[in-house]
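SAMPLE LOG
Freezer: B-3
Tube label: C17
Construct: single chain, 273 aa
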Amino acid sequence: MASTVSQQALAEANDRLTAGTATATAAQLATVADEILSVAGVLRAQPALRRALTDPSRSGADRGELLRSLLSGKVSQVTVDVLAALVSGRFSRPAELLDVTERLGADAVLSSAQKAGNLAEVEDELFRFGQIVSGNPELAITLSDPGAPTERRVKLVEDLLKGKAQPATVRLIEVALEGFGGRSFEGSLTRLVELTAAKRDREVAYVTVAKPLTDADEQALAAKLSDIYGRQVSLKVDVDPSIIGGVSVKVGSDLYDGTILRRLNAAKQAFSK
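STRUCTURE (predicted):
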């Protein structure tokens, strides 16, 4: 988890990114996002560079100039300026620089999707892809295998989603394959769904039901949860017949489990005592 000081560096870099891309098109923003994520890839592969760019014995301006000398002429000026601002900040440990650079790149991908007007679609596509993966053990093992070349797993995702998902969705799944913020592939996808929802100023509610909800039921549940949490809620519904009936809702660390399966398990435990 990023520290308070690295979060401050990320916030300042995001402000610089917003200002520097205020008039950019969605495609231009996507290019900047790709450049930032490419730099994250270099940082992942070069621990010595992470240490140099977070060296507390060097001033922030010095670290920023080092970054500029490495990137100038290789990426856009916006990307250079944003990342120079990032490394000028303070970090508790070198690994945090990689985490916040990945986060900055993911934020840029989301901004490009927002500008293109398909952020809600990206959110749903990320969630649905996660469901597809969790429902296919062979695919889950293949995509989650850190020992398999990332390029091969990226190619598999691109082949699976060609013409079926937004470019931003595919790019974020590629970010998840790298282990976003040090998470597992599944955990990375979940976190990216939540960040996408947050970009839309929404809370994510993971809902498990035994059979599909009607549109009216979904709207009523979303309205009730919105009243509870004081903001709009984005429902992510998973149909699982094994729960028999009822509904389970998870929002952040809050879990409301009203499934028949839970009640049966509770009854079994009570009888076994």
